[in-house]
Design a protein that fits this description.
2 domains, eight-stranded mixed β-sheet, Rossmann fold, about 40% helix, about 15% strand, alpha/beta, globular, 14 helices, six-stranded parallel β-sheet
């Protein structure tokens, strides 16, 4: 591989489907919110004139070396054994001579990228993806991952968080200062289709509480619901029970992983974006809904109280009964959301526009502003 000299290397091993889609290559695999956010930030910085590279792995298709002006670095594939992670992460730091390396979301990679970055005297920035990042003992891949993650956080020259609540957690849990940078929301057209179903998108795991959607659908047979099951490695028992229960409900539709292009019309026809998670960061799906004028309906997680304070939808405050009441109201008023839609779009435009967020990242990454 020819030597690359980007200003910033984003370590996003699972972002291959996003990059493939931008290159005009169709893939059905989905990606998570952490990958989506770093990809959007990388695009925004590139548009502002910066040299950017993405480190990818396990890409199901051949990709060009440059996509949207961003260098694509294909890392060694995962292999059997614990050393696969070390070989994989070291390759990114060794082969790409970047001024700054950015990694997002809690896991082994935080340490496996952060330590060699510091050894090579490269600036390392860690970016949170969820409130759960502050409880690394919940990581599912053994006892080593939490230790590597904590080591990586200690190696970070800077920490970026999504919300004020996460900033407080960084100060109290990690004793580290941090910078709050809101998530990016891509501009999107105002929804033009008639709202026809509540939309839930997520992985099948205990934190996401997908069973709450099934119970809500059972309580509101007059409303329609869609669930897009994203990601890999679902919790098998939970998924089996979910599918068995959903099969008995005529008003609930289960869909598999969707590309971003396939999700757009589903978002545009949503009554509200439904979130049932215990904990999140700033869910991408809420931002994508708000950008189209689609409100949020959350069971528990209201990031920084935005939904209540800015009147961007409805929050049930962890009450399934209240969730059912609010969903019934949202369904009954689904064709009368013009004021609510305008408020959602105005919020996203003022707080989450790509260029605005990229400018904030330039400060943390110590990059010169365009023309600087």
């Amino acid at each position: 591989m020819a030597a690359l000299r980007p200003e910033v290397l984003f370590f996003v091993p699972y972002a291959g489907p996003l990059v493939a889609a931008r290159a005009g290559i169709g893939v059905t695999a989905s990606t998570g919110g952490a990958e989506t956010q770093l990809f959007l930030i990388a695009q925004a910085l590139r548009r502002r004139g910066h040299r950017i590279a993405l480190a990818l792995a396990d890409v199901p298709v051949e990709l060009p070396d440059v996509v949207d002006g961003i260098d694509v670095v294909r890392l060694p594939p995962f292999g059997p054994g614990a050393r696969r992670f070390l070989r994989f992460a070291l390759a990114a730091v060794r082969d790409v001579d970047a001024d700054v390396i950015v990694q997002r979301a809690a896991g082994s990679f935080t340490g496996l990228v952060g330590v060699p970055a510091r050894m090579r005297r490269r600036r390392f920035v860690y970016s949170t993806a969820s409130d759960l990042d502050f409880d690394p003992d919940l990581l599912s891949d053994g006892i080593i991952a939490p230790r590597l993650f904590r080591l990586g956080v200690r190696c970070a020259n800077a920490i970026v968080v999504q919300t004020d609540a996460q900033a407080k957690l960084s100060r109290t849990r990690w004793r580290r200062p941090c910078t709050v940078i809101r998530s990016v929301a891509e501009p999107a057209p105002l929804r033009a289709a008639e709202p026809e179903a509540f939309l839930w998108i997520g992985r099948i795991n205990a934190n996401k509480r997908p069973q709450a959607v099934v119970e809500l659908a059972a309580r509101l047979p007059q409303a329609r619901f869609r669930m897009v099951i994203a990601g890999s490695r679902p919790e098998e028992t939970l998924e089996r029970n979910l599918r068995e229960r959903a099969a008995t409900l005529a008003n609930l539709e289960l869909l598999g992983p969707q590309s971003r292009d396939a999700l757009a019309p589903l978002l545009g026809r949503a009554v509200a974006i439904l979130s049932t998670s215990h904990a999140e960061g700033m869910p991408n799906v809420l931002l994508e809904g708000w950008a189209r004028g689609v409100p949020a309906l959350v069971l528990s997680h209201d990031p920084d109280g935005l939904i209540r304070r800015r009147k961007l939808g409805w929050s049930a405050e962890d009450s399934p009964d209240r969730l059912a009441e609010l969903a019934a109201t949202a369904w009954d008023t689904r064709n009368d959301q013009a004021e609510l839609s305008a408020r959602c779009r105005a919020y996203v435009a003022s707080e989450h526009a790509p260029d605005r967020i990229a400018a904030r990242w330039e400060d943390v990454l110590a990059l010169s502003a365009p023309g600087g």
